[in-house]
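[Meeting: bench + compute handoff]

Bench side (C.D.) handed over the final construct sequence. Compute side (W.E.) agreed to return the predicted structure before the next meeting so the bench team could plan truncations. Sequence as handed over:
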Amino acid sequence: MTVRTTIDSPLGELLLVGEESATANGGFAVASLSLADHATPAPPAVPADVRRDADALAEPVRQLADYFRGERRVFDLEYTVTGTAFRQRVWRALEEIPYGTTVTYGEIAERIGAPRAAVRSVGAAIGANPLLVLRPCHRVIGADGTLTGYAAGLERKEWLLTHEGALQPTLV
């Protein structure tokens, strides 16, 4: 069974989708987190029989609220893992990036044992990450330190990195 709910956040309304899991204590594992009304990252194809159920997703909603309030640095949730073996290696590397830090695409390639020439493939795998915020792809920056390649928009990436203390707020 698949369930969904929406969450108000500083990034905009988020769409959280969960799938029933035998290992989540009879609960639901997070299948995706995306912007609810934004073309990129596109909300996942939600099955027609999905039901709206905020109670079933109460724990991820609570942890996200804690994160946005600055009270959580690490998520303790079960995720469904779908993707190629290469994508899964990249996504595991993302999950190891500590809160408040950044790494480059090249560093991710190195961490997974891929050649430097694989940086574009690493970027594509990061762009296919279905777990906005939860799997911290926003912590990956360009080799020259610039903010690049965030499907939810660079202004959201900047907000997240500033929120985590990895960037200083910009004065406008």
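W.E. noted at the follow-up: The radius of gyration is 16 Å. C.D. will use this when planning the next construct.
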